Amino acid sequence: MDTIQRNLLEQVAGLHEVPAGAYNIRANGQKAGRNNTANIEIVTKEDKEGIDIVIKPGTKNESVHIPVILSESGHQEMVYNDFYISEDCDVTIIAGCGIHNCGVDTSKHEGIHTFYVKKNAKVRYVEKHYGEGDGSGENIMNPVTVVHLEENAYLEMETTQIKGIDSTNRITRGTLKEGARLEVKEKIMTHGKQYARTEFEVDLNGENCSANVISRSVARDTSKQEFFSRINGNAACAGHSECDAIIMDESCVTASPQLTANHVDASLIHEAAIGKIAGEQLIKLMTLGLTEAEAEQQIISGFLK
To answer: What order do you get walking across the sheet with 107-117 strand by strand?
Structure first.
């Protein structure tokens, strides 16, 4: 790998060298590296682009890295990755996509990740999106995540996009059975003319299952963000959706929550807040010696942390 590709890997997956454990690195549509372990097998799909990640029952304290990097301007792809997490597992999956585009053509990565999480399994999924380049070509990412949680399964998703993506349509869908839990934490920052759309839809089908969706975002310049969430309570369950956004300059932020209770014991809550940085926050930091721009950055960093 060259210097550009190594930097992308560091940005999206925190990798400075070949990771320990199972991994699959995809670069410009080709396999750039792969390793299986005794408990985790990664298999190339035969009918379409993508991989199957199969984790054996009882696998504990292991990780899988599956970063994607694009460094050729104009490269566009659709990838399908399926995760089969067996019963009683406890694993971490590090994904993410980085684009370096110094040309005039549009670079695009679209991916559909589907999780099949069996009974009593626990998964932490981390996904970062990052773009860079000094050309006029756009960087586009359209990730789709589909989650199927069986009895007492748990999935925690951490998704981050804070730089360099001109347009994104982020879709997450989930179905939960009895006792299953889904935790989603999203962080987004847009600037310039960038556009970001987020859509969550969760069906709470099992007794005592729960979903907690938290989105924090910052919109700057003339960028635009849209947040849509739908939580359907179809049993005695708990659902919570929270959208907090800082709006700056001439940007635009829309939050559209929707709750549907189809069961008398479904407890569903939505919270949304959109507003500018408070003047007293800026003044307090500026009295400590920060410039206005430095104070704004401190507030934004703390908000997205």
So the answer is: 40-44, 50-55, 76-85, 107-117, 139-149, 167-176, 195-204, 224-233, 252-261
pLDDT tens digits, residue range 224-240? Answer: 999 999 999 999 999 99
Kindly calculate the radius of gyration of the chain based on its CA atoms and give it in whole angstroms. Answer: 20
Which of the four pLDDT bands, split at 50, 70 and 90, describes residue 59? very high
93-106 residue pLDDT tens: 999 999 999 999 99
pLDDT for the residue 84: 98
